[in-house]
# Entry
Amino acid sequence: MIKRKLIMIMENKPGALVRVVGLFHQRGYNIETLHVDPVTDFSRYKFIEEKLETKFKENEISRLTITTFVSDSLMRQILRQLNKLIDVIAVSNEETTYLKGVLLDENLL
Amino acid sequence: MLMRALHDEGVELIFGYPGGAALHIYDAIFRQDKIDHILVRHEQGATHAADGYARATGKPGVVLVTSGPGATNAITGIATAFMDSIPMVVISGQVASHLIGTDAFQETDMIGISRPVVKHSYTVFDAQDIPKIIKEAFYVATSGRPGPVVIDIPKDMTAPDKLYDYEYPEKANIRSYNPPIEPEQNQIERAVAAIISANKPVIYAGGGAIASNAFKELFELNEILDAPITNTLMGLGIYPATHKRFLGMLGMHGTYQANMAMHNADLIIAIGARFDDRITNNPSKFSPDAKIIHLDVDHSSVSKIIEADIAVFGQVKNSLEAIIKTLKNNLDDYDSERLKPWHSQIAEWRSSHGLNYELYKDESDNNSILPQAVVQHVYNITKGEAYVTSDVGQHQMFAAQYYHFDKPRKWINSGGLGTMGFGLPAAMGVKFAFPNEEVVCITGEGSIQMCIQELSTCFQYNLPIKIININNEALGMVKQWQDMNYGGRHSESTYQNSLPDFIKLAESYGHVGIKIEKNSELKESLEKAFSMKDKLVFVDVYVDPSEHVYPMLVANDSLENMWLSKDKKT
Ligand SMILES: Cc1ncc(C[n+]2csc(CCOP(=O)(O)OP(=O)(O)O)c2C)c(N)n1
Ligand SMILES: [Mg+2]
# Structure
């Protein structure tokens, strides 16, 4: 198992973070590092505007960086499970990016 | 505002139980006449009833409970719905906003407790948001892979003295949620190519195909393919059980021919099924030669346990339509004649060790009643057309094996969580949805006692359900495992003659009770029970307590290794 990094863009809503953390906990994985920032500079990301109900406002979404030790196949599974969370807008690791159709930018990292 | 939003959402029925934090809502229920509220006797009953309603109709079930113990009592039912991907919206009262976090009377963190067993959850922080939250909650619960959604509402959010502008949104728009609907055509083409070149295909369809209402499409597909087809416990009814290509259920207690066909297949077409451990047994020994096509709406279900060679994401119904269309364009390449050797191999399996009805034909009083025979008689009397709910245990497996479902949404059981206590309240939910249909609950004396209080609800609302209590005077399934794996040591799986008199019990709840102890009474007494159209009849049938469920997969092995009886292995 090697150390892996994944990045998520998610709604900054109460309870959103605990759903992410809970997913790791439930499967018995330790989160090594966890970093959350409100997204203030939207020019960094390309969104598909018509898919957004409203424009993002400041502090409305967060960028989350997690590092953890898991195997390849588990990483893939975790990525898919995270993508399934309703508050997650995009999730990405080195290989795969899930975008749910509102974000254009493949390269979150 | 809440009731109005629920009405605008099309809700007709709520199952619930009142309490302090929900009293404003209950007053609003009293002062309207559009939505019926069903008062259950325990919140677990409310969730299972809403679940049964949802499984039978395809519409979301709705539950209303109060905070604290009301909410925690609902958890088992929410988890049951979650494991089987059943659409449900659970509204829980909460203590007033200013009290949250103070260990107030009847305060529990419902969002926290339910988090691992919901698809999503909402807290109402501003009453103005109620219509939007309701709209979103129903959308999330019913779309994609369905599941339960909890809405926690602090008491002050439903205070009657405050008024708000009300507008019900036409559509839920959640930018971070967009489940796949249409499949990608290139995957469809790869799937069709694999189908065309397979010599030993098997279709393996599960609950996802029912959730997607894909009965017609699946049938149409197999009119072309003419392939053998098996269903999971959750998928029973999605393909007619009496069809000649139907193999029966697969997995732990699946039929010999279904498990053998899966093991020897060169192509498995998985449709809304998730390769769980009751199906694969040991994943490393699972179907060694099969290529896998997996149709599912949920990314995370594919290649989770068994790697899929071809993954088709989308609503199963749409994916099947796309496959049919592409296949029809390539019909010249498809020759179902080449499956003949495969069909004859399967026919051989079926005749050698298929479920053996003849075994149960000696119904003289020298023998005790066999549970399988009870199910067969119920099947015959109801002409195979009843809604059948079940609990968990041997009786559940006998019901799944011996009641042959030709239509989807008629077999209603807790597959994923395996919740004892599910059967009776689920049957109530079905009966509310279809008052003119026959609804049977096949249960065991262990399970029925876990939600027996709902007999009172059945009396209040006059629900003439037929309860068939397959009474083996034991936690039969536990006992079977103890027989097979623990040297027959029956640790805490019998009740030492402490069972209640179920007939008197049923009568004291205002219903009819019938006791059956002899083979010679079986058919006639069951017929009598079913002839009482407007009564709930509790039939207590004493069966052979030593009977086991077979076939049964040998633990941790491949699908071709099964116990066929107490002393016979494949
Ligand atoms: C709530 C709950 N507790 C425990 C179990 C474990 N369990 C599975 S089957 C079973 C025995 C069920 O007994 P009964 O309802 O009489 O059915 P039988 O197997 O005898 O037909 C038990 C205890 C369960 N599935 N659900
Ligand atoms: Mg029993």
Observations:
- Chain A touches chain B through 25 residues (CB under 8 Å).
- Helices of chain A lie at 16-26, 72-84.
- Residues B 393, 444-446, 472, 474-476 surround magnesium ion (ligand 2) (CB under 6 Å).
- Strands of chain A lie at 2-11, 31-38, 61-70, 88-92, 97-98.
